Amino acid sequence: MALLKANKDLISAGRQEFSVLLNQQVFNDPLISEEDMVTVVEDWMNFYINYYRQQVTGEPQERDRALQELRQELNTLANPFLAKYRDFLKSHEPPSHPPPSS
């Protein structure tokens, strides 16, 4: 079953808005843990899902499918963002020093 055009447009808008949100993030002090950043991103995703839940159209099955597709799209955007944050955290770790040789 194909998504309704209106729902496709909403998914596209949500994807674009979420992408803008992620691109606006600036990583700086104080740093938060990777786990906390995952929680923040999940909260943002839930916010978007709940916002668009009120706007999707069609039968309940169509609405659920549209929201599921929106969640997949947001996850697709979130994964590279979280990888970038993980790399950022690694670049700010103090260098590990080998143990002194005896």
UniProtKB/TrEMBL annotation:
Gene3D superfamilies according to UniProt: AHSP
Molecular function (Gene Ontology), one example: hemoglobin binding
A single BP term in Gene Ontology: protein stabilization
GO cellular component: cytoplasm
Residues in coiled coil: none
Domain of life according to the entry: Eukaryota
InterPro entries, sorted: A_Hb_stabilising_prot, AHSP_sf
Keywords tagged on the record: Chaperone, Cytoplasm
Compartments, record wording: Cytoplasm
The protein's assembly and partners: Monomer. Forms a heterodimer with free alpha-hemoglobin. Does not bind beta-hemoglobin nor alpha(2)beta(2) hemoglobin A.
Protein family (similarity comment): Belongs to the AHSP family.
Family annotation (PANTHER family): ALPHA-HEMOGLOBIN-STABILIZING PROTEIN
Name of this chain's protein: Alpha-hemoglobin-stabilizing protein
